[in-house]
Every structure is written in C-alpha cells, then in structure tokens.
Write a structure and sequence with these properties.
The structure is a single chain. The N terminus is likely disordered. Helices cover 51% and strands 13% of the residues. The longest helix is centred in the C-terminal third of the chain and has 37 residues. β1, α2 and β2 form a beta-alpha-beta unit. It has a domain of 160 residues: D-Maltodextrin-Binding Protein, domain 2, CATH 3.40.190. 43% of the residues are buried. α4 crosses α5. The strands form two sheets. The chain has a six-stranded mixed sheet with strand order 7-6-8-5-9-11, covered by helices on one side. Strands 2-1-3-10-4 form a five-stranded mixed sheet. By secondary structure, it is α/β, with parallel strands linked by helices. The radius of gyration is 24 Å and the shape is globular. The chain is built from 13 helices and eleven strands.
Length: 364
C-alpha cells in the first residue's frame, strides 16, 4: 500500500473517530420518568383514549428516553385530585379540563371553555397567537404548574334531558350534571347542578339522581349510552363552544427537563390537540344518525327565549369572574377582546359561507 495514501486516510479517519466518540455523550439524553394522572377512567371512550394515546406518543417520540407511566382516574389519585397531585410533585403531569380547577381560581375556566365563548379554531388562535398562552402560564405558575393544549372536543351538544326544555322556567329544579361556568349559568336559572367525573354520570342518570347531563357530542356520547335513560338530546349548547383539554405539568419538574425533552412532550401534545378535534368532526355526524336511527333518540334545539336566558346569565357569570381578582380581570378582558375580534371576521367569512352553503345545498 502507498504509505502516503495510508497516512492521508488515517489522518481523515482519526478525527472522524474522535468526533464519533465525543458525539455520543453529547447527544444522549438522561432518561426521565413522567407519571401522568388522568381525570378519566382507563379505556374511556373519546377523552380517556385520547389521553392514553398522548401518553404513548410521548414515549414513542422520545425513543424511550421519557419513561411514561399513565394512571387513569382512580388508579393513583381520584379524577379531581389530579391538580394537587401534580402541583405537589407526586405526579409529573395530568390530563384534564382546566375548568375542573375553578375552585383554585375561577379564571382557569377560560382555558377550557366558557359559555358563549370561543370555538376550537378561535381558542387555538388565542392561545398560540393572541396572548392566551402567556396568561395561562402566569395563572398556572401561581400554583407551581405549567400547561399546554392537548385536545379539543369542538362545539359540544346541549345535553341529555328527560323532559323538553321549552321555556327558561323548565330549568327550575332540574338536577343536572354540568361543570364549569355552564353549570353556574344553569344554577342562575334555577337548576341544581353537580360536577361529576365522567365515569360516574351514567349510573347517576339511570338511577334518577340527576335528570339531565351534558357530556361532549354524538361520537363520545354514543358510547356512554345516555339514551338508555334520557329521551331528548339537545344538539347544540351554550356552555362549551370549543372545550379544550390540557396537559398540565409540575413547573419545577418541567423546567428541569432538557430543551429536547420539553420539545418532545410539546410536539406530542400539539399533535393530539389536532387529532382529537379532527376525530370528533369526522365522527359526530355519523354517530348522531346512529343515535336517532338505532336508538330512537329525539333531537331538539333550544328556542331563542331559552338562548336569551342563557346569554343573560352567562354575561353575569363572566362579570362576576372578572371581579374576583386582578388576574381574573386581566384574563377576562383579554379573552373577550380577542373573542370580539375573531368573531367579527368569522361572521362575514366562515359563518356566512357555511350558512349559504347549507342553504344552497340543502344541508342542515
């Protein structure tokens, strides 16, 4: 072999080998454990399966560097104990709805949904590009948490009732499962409301402990079998126009992660945020037809008198929330300002188009 060629090759190979040797430790990430507690039972239709899919996706994206242990509601802590479990560091993250934590601070409701609030597309715009993310981070940090979007159900149905709602007076004395500000609105109109975990709704409806319940929409509701206990299904509601799901994390734990691991978790959450909403849109129409055709469900719409009563009560709720604190006022004012801005444009673009499309094609 030509000695000059050998030496030239060795000169090239040596640095390459050294770079390879040095690169491995630099690129390797220390394995971290992530215990996720959920507010829904294991294999729970829709929301629970979405949370499990998110947990699996985090592990997959990380290539096993993030060891994810998923605990459904009741397996580690109760559904509504998830917030405290993560805040105190017993678990690293929760999956749930932020309006479950309004007992901690009422402004958390804005980061799930509020009556007459934003649709899914509007909400995502506010969080990601309208300043909502920064307000959410500020509120969560006061409790040692940080949170991000990981799902959205879209506009939810008005709910399942064992009687028709023809006037606001029909709500008086009604026992209904409805959480968040929607429940506060119903209470103002005379209903008796409770906030039950999803896994306990069916048994309470069947037993008569409650007269009505809201849940999500036809795709999710079908598997809950509410049709076995309630005859009337109101297909549009005021209470959750675009209900967001959150992945909340313990703030010190989150800040201790590498930038790469934070990026992996954020990417998985963003992916599931899109997937869950797309899945709902893809399936709601078909499952509404099945509820009507296969199970004799009678669909209804609230009339304008009822909608107006909802609206008046909702404005009272938002104003009361605004008066709670400076933080609540800041979030309320920003949310409503952005809502007006987004809705004004959508009314002359998407809403006008949808109305005219449905009229021309005979849809809806």
């Amino acid at each position: 072999m030509d000695r000059r060629l050998f030496l030239k090759g060795a000169a090239v190979a040596a640095p390459a080998a050294a770079a390879s040797t040095l690169a491995a430790p630099a690129l390797a990430q220390e394995r971290v454990e992530m215990n996720i507690v959920s507010t829904w039972p294991r294999d729970f239709p829709g929301l629970g399966l979405s949370a499990q899919r998110l947990a699996a996706r985090i592990a997959e994206i990380s290539g096993g560097e993030i060891i994810v242990n998923y605990f459904a509601a009741g397996e580690k802590v109760g559904a509504f104990d998830s917030f405290d479990s993560v805040a105190n560091g017993d678990a690293q993250a929760y999956v749930g709805c932020e309006y479950y934590w309004t007992g901690k601070h009422p402004a958390f409701a804005y980061f799930t949904t509020v009556p007459f609030g934003m649709t899914a597309s509007e909400f995502n715009a506010w969080i990601n590009y309208g300043g909502g993310k920064e307000l959410w981070a500020k509120l969560s940090a006061d409790f040692g948490l940080t949170a991000m979007l990981c799902g959205n159900t879209g506009t939810q149905s008005g709910g399942w009732f064992n009687k028709e709602i023809e006037t606001p007076d029909d709500l008086r004395g009604l026992k209904m499962r409805i959480p968040g500000f929607g429940g506060t609105v119903m209470s103002k109109l005379g209903a008796s409301t409770v906030s039950l975990p999803g896994g306990q709704i069916y048994e309470n409806l069947v037993s008569g402990a409650i007269d009505a319940t809201e849940w999500v929409g036809p795709y999710n509701d079908y598997f809950m079998k509410f049709f076995e206990a309630a005859r009337y299904y109101y297909v549009s509601g005021m209470h959750e126009p675009g209900a967001s799901i959150a992945l909340g994390a313990n703030l010190p734990w989150w800040e201790g992660l590498s930038e790469t691991h934070r990026a992996m978790i954020s990417a998985a959450a963003e992916e599931e945020n899109a997937r869950q909403h797309q899945q709902a849109v893809a399936n709601n129409g078909a499952y509404l037809s099945r509820l009507v055709t296969d199970h004799g469900v009678e669909t209804r719409s609230f009339n304008e008198e009822v909608w107006d009563a909802f609206g008046e009560a909702a404005m009272e709720v938002l104003e009361e929330t605004r008066d709670h604190s400076d933080m609540a006022a800041q979030i309320t004012d920003d949310f409503l300002a952005k809502l007006r801005e987004y809705a004004t444009y959508l009314a002359v673009s998407e809403t006008e188009f949808a109305n005219q499309r449905n009229r021309v094609l005979g849809l809806g």
